[in-house]
Input
Amino acid sequence: MVQSAKNYNDEVINFYDEQLVPRADMVYRFAFAASLNLDAASRLVRQTFEEVAKEAQRLEGGGTINLDSELLGICWRLYKKGGTKDSNQSKSQIVKVLKDLSVEERVILVGTDVLGIAPNDMMKIVNVEGVSFRRNLAKARGTLLGSSFEI
Amino acid sequence: MTMSPNDLSDSELLNGYLAEYLDGELPSTIRDKYNSLVKNPKHAQAPEHFQQMRGKLQLAMQTYYLKESDLSELRSMVQDPEATATQENIKIEQLGRKVVVSNILRRVSIVLVCACVIGYLVWTFAPTREGEFKALEYLAYEAVALEEDPQERLNLPSSDLKEIRQYLVNYPGLDFKPFVLRSISNNWVPEGATVINYEVAKVTVVQYGHNATSEKLFHFIYAGDLSDLPPSAQGRYKDLNFQTYATDQHNFIAWEPSPGVVSLLVGKRSAPDLAEMAIAGP
Output
């Protein structure tokens, strides 16, 4: 359920429209990597932005905040909280490659190699330390390299 | 945390740092071991293969994006859609007004530029302003006209030089002090005088006739500067400095008897002859 819009000032509205909403597709792909389900991914994006809307004023005045990490961190936290459950997985080629990976492995793969998030930032987003992160990433890449994935 | 080469297995190390290897950004702690792994023929193709598969995965993920309705829903979380639409309409209206004003200013500028160009061309190439006195042109015509019909054009037909002088000195509205040439020679007799009124200039004329032929001589005087006349050949006879001109029918000499006064002697004689006559002076 979408909450009614609060009374934000023009700067916050412009910041939200120009800096945060353009990142919605990035959150959607991350959420899809986590859930492997398009509807679930859409719901996760809405939940993420409901959280983000509450934080918009803080983020707007944040200066050097890494917005990509902030958004994906919120999305991951919501996913882990169980706000969205995996069900009726999509049958696309991508899902065929990712479905045998753990959720951490596939979000690390998509976050690092598709969304371009720096490894150190991905570690903070998914709360996985260095060696485990590299192992997850290596496993996911190994699966991708060994697949017959075609577009 | 600094990675040690022994923290990961060979395959974990290889696959875990493929991107860094391709970017040339391997951590120094694992660089030597990694390079030796890649040199192994079994793994030599791994970096290139990873690049290809990573590219395919990126392209495939690009096909997943939110619809505009989903994005509108996200925007509505901070601003009511109606308020957004109203603000957009206001911006459109303001932009439209700016465009209209800009168009008007552009058109006015173009009109002004055209007007300036046309004005300049008219000023440069248009016929002389009404009121400018073209002395040579007008007096050349007058000389011909006087020759053809002397009696009709002379207000004061007279052979009395004193009478002629009196007439001219008393003529109202002259911007200069007129004078008559003293006896030019015995062969030339005054025949009369007149004042030609061009509105922008008044010119006194004394006409002389040769006593043996029908040849005429005309002495014109008006207020002006010798420099207003076109540049021409300069002449000098005794103390008289003059400029010479000619038409098909007459020769002219022009001089300044005093500042602000131009005097012309017009006739069929040569310029030196005219100068000799003019030196007689007032």
